[in-house]
Write the structure tokens for this entry.
Amino acid sequence: MLKKSLVSIEQCAKDDILRILENARKFEENPNRQLLQGRVAATLFFEPSTRTRLSFETAVNRLDGRVVGFSDASTTSSAKGETLKDTILMVGNYADIIIMRHYLEGAARYASEITDIPIINAGDGANQHPTQTLLDMYSIQKTQGTLENLTITMAGDLKYGRTVHSLLAGMSHFNPKFHFIAPEELKMPDEQKRFCRLHNIEFRDSSVFSEEIINESDILYMTRVQRERFTDLVEYERIKNVYILHDKMLENSRPNLRVLHPLPRVKEIAYDVDDNPKAYYIQQARNGLFVREAIICDVLGIEVY
């Protein structure tokens, strides 16, 4: 078990990933268990969230724990100038585990270094989103029957997209092949490409979102262009709708292809895709509940039977 903070997917060995995914399967079979009786989880969301926050809070409730926290930092003492350090130390007086989303890269790691309370990173800026990665991998495993030797196409915002950065690291244990599809302004950063080369991961880089590439894929991972990451809104308006997936683009794709998206979507997946059996993003979000139950238990050292 991890028995410590989860701030980055890189701290998870292959065995850690497979154990968490297996426990998620157990929770999918029976999500309601009294494993957190007497425990309190604090959810500190300095950035907006729907799926991540609600799935974590639902996970704690289904495990018979209690939740405290906030979803709007403007209502807390941080709006008065309280430092992140003081907030974490204060909340650590009340909770057994802290689940935190923050707009600053590295905030979760910093929090983990100043408190003995386990920290779960629910997203830190454009850096990491390890719990999203684990639910993505659970979704991939469920739909493909394996994590090994898959071709994964990532399209959209690959520069600021913390979910794609984390997924690269998580899948690195399973011999993947990647297609990176992004406009020049949002291409996969050099740091992630170096990671691929270091781990002998094959990848192709392109700015063309074509049916040919879709037809070579087992997983199509769409992402939105994130308005909140842009300082130049003119640039955002120019490229926000650069790639849009339509149902007809999936006509000749592999039978096993599944379309994933960390959500929320804006316009990058047309609504006509929703009824296609290859669309999996709603089920993907549902899987987040089971995976986050498994993660909470793992960092607290709780066995799942």
